[in-house]
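The pair is quoted verbatim as follows:
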Amino acid sequence: MPAPEQHAAAAQHSAHEGGTRVVVWALAINLIIAALKFGVAVITGSTAMLAEAFHSLADTGNQIFLLLGMRLSTRPADEEHPFGFAAERYFWAFMAALSIFTVGGAVSVYEGVEKMIAPAGAAIAHPLWAFVVLGASIVLESVSFVVAMREFREVSGGRGFRKTLREARDPTVLTVLFEDTAALVGLVLALGGVGLATATGNALWDGLASVLVGVVLIAVAIMLVRDVKSLLIGRSVPEDERRRIHEIAAAARDVVAVVHIRTVHLGPDEVMCGLKLSFTPTLETRALELRINELEAQLRAAFPHLRRIYVEPGFDEHAGDAR
């Protein structure tokens, strides 16, 4: 099977079982971690721990957003939405990114700055609790990260990391993977801040750790917002896949030339494809219909996510056809 078809099959896998499994794992783990962090933040008075608690709360909300998008996207098309609801997944992924920015990033920076400008004093009460929970959180987040990374490798279909990121049309697994990466970085920063605050007796380090956690979350949120915004506007299929569609169309019976191809992802696993093709001029209407039906069947066999295919007979642009 050609590489683009393998990538399409991998994307289908991500959009269903794989993506759901990753999100459910992340949701369960973040619920546990958020409860532990809020409890210890109250006991210790640590701002870094409070920032991490808000971080986990934001991540929990994000998993709910992603699951909601996956559920709503399966609704059948209706008169008002003739192309269906596949884009729900993009919308709710966008909401998840905003949640990371506000509930996680902005709140963490605010709490950290407030702690830093307060008079210095005993930074952490009962620091042992903070160390235990941060250590346990690192272990739990590592489990979620491993699950997300394993699914990411499935989605990649043998492509490199950068190419997979560039060509990804399903934000679900990527969102969880970036969240988990940010979570592990944030936990290490919080651990360092609590450790320095405990050693020096100065709350400045605790507040600084909170600010750094917030900055990491804001950076991740901006990156996710940029990518999901592109998907909401409408992105074409990856270049390799587009090239394969062109090859199939050009090789179809009675196709003289491919004038142009237009594709757009309506959702992670639903693509609309429009082709303008120059057919043999002597074809009768019935024969032309049969050729178009044959081509649509070939394209859907190669790429199941080409749910809507529209073929317009026309002339090669070099022959004077106005596009």
User: Anything to note?
Assistant: The chain has a mean pLDDT of 85. The chain is about 70% helix and 10% strand.
